[in-house]
Description:
The protein has helices at residues 3-7, 24-27, and strands at residues 16-23, 33-43, 51-61, 64-67, 78-86, 92-98. The protein is mainly beta. It has one domain (3-98). A six-stranded mixed beta sheet has the order 1-5-6-2-3-4. The longest helix is centred in the N-terminal third of the chain and has 5 residues, at 3-7.
Amino acid sequence: MDIERIKAIPRYSDFVYLNEPVEFYRCCEDKDYDVVQIHDINPISDKHPEPIGFCGTFEWKSNILTPLDGDDYTSQMPVYAWHEFTSVNGLKCIDILTDEW
């Protein structure tokens, strides 16, 4: 997926885009997040070029990744962009854009 195309999608317009992807653990080293939400930027299919989008969540505390949904994730996934926010419950959260998790 062309990252410029992702930037044009309103859902991802307020993300901070990196010049080069950075491995998640390097990008978020020594930061704590109650919830990390992963958004896959790969196209749904050849017929549907929009990104897959939301695909999972994990916690990142003391540089340890703990899945919140039972899936497996790697802290080495490339991060192309991110957006920090606080949930309505006061949780510190971050959305990340990646193409492999």
